[in-house]
Amino acid sequence: MARKIPAPSIADARHCPVCDTRVGIAATKCVVCGAELGSVDEAADGTSVGRRTAFPDGGHVRIPLPVIVAGVMLMLLGGLALVLVSVGHNPFVHPTATVTPVPTIVPTFTQEPTSTPTQLPTSTPLPPLAHTVVEGDTCILIAVTYDVSVQSILQLNGFTQACLLLVGQEVLVPVPTPTAAATATATMMPLALTQAARPTHVVSAGESLSSIAAEFGVSFSVMAEVNGKLPPDYAITIGEMLSIPVDMPMPTAGPTPTETSLPPYPAPRLLNPPDGAAISSIEQTVSLQWTSVATLRENEVYLVSVEDVTDNAARRISDTTLTTRYIVTVDVKPHEAVPHIFRWTVVTARQTGVTADGRPMYQPAGTTSVERTFTWMGIGVAPVEPSTQEVEQ
Asked: CA-CA to 5 of 20 to 30 Å: which in 20, 137, 151, 163?
């Protein structure tokens, strides 16, 4: 019986005949020196076991199929990696994210709107009025008619102080500046009597407006206002019928309360005529004007004093007015064709009572203005006495 020779196991190894390096059974070439190794095709018992690599010791080994598949896959993956690297894509390097620069937006500042100051409406001066001179017109008469100063007419027309006018001549008159009206006091009027029940009185010789007011026990200022009598003279004529405002009597005398002393008023500032002005001989009146010191109370007036100092004060006026203007009438104008010097002052006065004949009494309530003078002369002809007799206050 023949003895079986066991086939070499995979664990068996052989050596390279050249460098004696131990190699595997299936190896065909030495991995060290590269020498060719012999191969074994059959096992010792004669059965075919496939191609085997022969080693010096006669060992054989079979390559497993998974190893072959893994090798093929590695070769394919290696080829694919080479292709990717050649086109610039390296699969073994993690790509670095490219940071795209974002432009920084510079903030813009909106300018605040420039505040435009609101223009306040300005008053447009009115054009002057045209006055056609008629017979008897003078600059003072025109000024009184239009309630303006004589000086403004002279300056606007370029006239001299003589102010010579011709009939039919056009004279420019400035529009007077409106003044704020005095605030009305909330005084309740008695309703016991009505205006229809007011009695009337016919003026007789020797009577004045103030004496009539005192006789009926009514206020002089109310009496003048009701009958349309204006300062400075409050003139009435004999035979004139006056309305007596008995529905507005003077306050009944009673316990006199302690009055709080009022502060004195400042001196009025004189305006026209200018100091030393020469009034033409053809002028029949002279308009005196000054500034207001305050809103006058019911018992307060302006006391105007005018005297002819050339004639040793033969002509002297001391009169009252509620306005800031006083007209010196032709009665004061000198008769001689020689300039006379007139001196005038204004002071605020307060009524303190009435005289025996009913005339109001006043005392200064402030500082007297500075003195001013003007010259005025006549035409050398004595005036004709008026036919109508007038009774002055």
From this structure: 20
Instruction: List pLDDT tens digits, range 260-316.
Output: 556 688 899 998 899 989 988 888 899 999 988 888 888 889 999 998 888 665 678
CB 146 within 8 A of CB 126: no
How would DSSP label each residue in 88-116? T--TTSPPPPPPPP-PPPPPPPPPPPPPP
Cis amide prior to 273 (ω within 30 degrees): yes
Residue 303 and residue 364 in contact, taking contact as beta carbons nearer than 8 Å: yes
Instruction: Give the pLDDT confidence of 66-100 residue by residue, as tens digits.
Output: 888 898 898 988 888 888 877 766 666 666 666 66
pTM of the model: 0.34
pLDDT per residue as tens digits for the range 300-328: 899 999 988 886 656 788 889 989 999 99
Q: Which residues contact 154 (CB under 8 A, 6 or more apart)?
A: 139, 160, 161, 163
What would the two tokens of residue 287 be? 């308009």
Taking Cα atoms as reference points, which of 320, 317, 324 lies closest to residue 360? 320
In a domain, 352, yes or no: yes
CB atoms within 10 A of CB 222: 16
Number of helices and strands (H, E) in the chain? 5, 19
Task: Residue 272: give the domain boundaries.
Answer: 264-384
Task: Name the token pair of 317.
Answer: 């006026």
Contact call for residues 245 and 217 (beta carbons, < 8 A): no
Read off the CATH number of the domain in which 295 is found. Answer: 2.60.40.10
Task: Please state at what angle helix 150-157 crosses helix 139-146, rounded to 10 degrees.
Answer: 110
Strand partners, 290: 270
Six token digits for residue 174: 């400035």
Residue of 284, 309, 295 lying closest to 262 (CA atoms): 295
CB 302 within 8 A of CB 324: yes
C-alpha closest to that of 215 among 190, 252, 250, 191? 250
Give the C-alpha separation, 302 to 350, whole Å: 9
Q: How many domains in the chain?
A: 4
Residue pointed to by tokens 């002369």: 377
Sign of the torsion formed by the C-alpha atoms of 211, 212, 214 and 218: negative
DSSP character at residue 193: S
Integer Cα distance of 391 and 393 in angstroms: 7
**232 in the same domain as 343:** no
